[in-house]
Amino acid sequence: RRDHSAGWDRRSVALACTTTATRPHIMRVCDALRIALSFRLPDLPDRNAAVLAADPLERGIGASIIVPGALLLNPDEIAHAPVPTPEPALSPTPPAPAAGTPASSTTAPAPSAGTSAPSPVEPPDLRLFGAQVTRIELALRRGGPLMLVGPTATGKTTQAMAAALRLGFGVEAVTLDEGWEAEDLFGSYTRTRRDREWSFVAGPVTRWAERAANGEQVLLLIDELARGHKTVVSAVMRLMNEHTRSAIEGMKLALPADEAGPFYIVDIRATQQRIVLPCRRVRIVATANQGEGYSGIDLSDPAFGRRWTGGWLQLSSYPPDEAARIIGDRLGLAPAAPLIKAMQQVELQVLAYQKKEEALRATLDLATLIAWGRTALYLHAHATTAAKGNARLAFQDAARDTWLDRLCPLQGADLDPQVERVLLDMVSAAAPTRLK
Fold first, then answer.
1. pTM for the complete prediction?
2. I need a labelling partner for 356 at 20 to 30 A (CA). Which of 248, 265, 376, 422 fits?
3. Is the peptide bond preceding residue 262 cis, with omega within 30 degrees of 0?
4. d(CA 203, CA 61)
């Protein structure tokens, strides 16, 4: 919540614990937590638990995704708590490809020494397409920081998160903009509105480090890295430095006895805390849009580039046939549906027009095509719209609603009438007589 005054302080919690109406509920939660912290829970992929930040809009919050598979405990059954069992060996067996993903002849190598192999979990209801799906997953298996670069709507973030969940990693994700500085990644002291006391609020990197230090295998996903403040690049570079066990011992930092290294060191300046993380237990992935038409930090520094030892993958736009499969999957249509063919025809014409005239503010991408298709199907199906049952009108109205006004340049305060007419003619000429 933005209004921190709505939170509970110690006094409020203490009062609730002594109040007849709330004490039983608090005790049930405490009992469930005690069991959850005392016993290893079975892996049940059909039972999922997620923890989300209270206010994802607040800077420094980000989002947390806990690996699916935790059993949701019933506090009434505490007397029947399971007997603790030894931790099973982690399996290096690669997971089956996601539903709808083309089979690949590439076999994932067994994890090498120093590389973690958490239990794989298949993300529910997530169908991914394209050769890069296998590339990203193999890169995460190998270990080392991974950079994903490419145009918007190529699935950089989605595929990285999906691969992490398939491999059994939790995810700590944050999306940057020009307001994000290094301090925001690690956290800072803030004052509460209620009692005006200072307290440390952890940023996404600190949360990631704390989760890994507690034994979880976690991916740190820094989305839109190039859009952050220039201090972010230096902070991420320091984060990716690898240290040997002897070097950590020379720094007099605490080390787990069973870890050979290498290690990352997370320096939290606000608290003067240093957290040592075994590299095998964590992954670092960043995404960025680079090239013509994109603004942000220049990531071409060789010292920055060489630290991405897990790979620097340039993801290109999808070929038309793969794009048609993705659109069809998202819209519930066959890849050869008239609606999809018509949208892809307009996409090619818009791209050719932009190459020739350089008059548009942007071109069409996969995410926009999906939004266009969904809007067209909605307008065609609902009686409250003028396009009810009229495929051509639904196609044209949806284009106007989702992208045409955004791509068309301005002339004064209005759309450029000449360019607007060109775009409208493209859409009208391609409009199908049926959508499915």
1. 0.61
2. 376
3. yes
4. 6
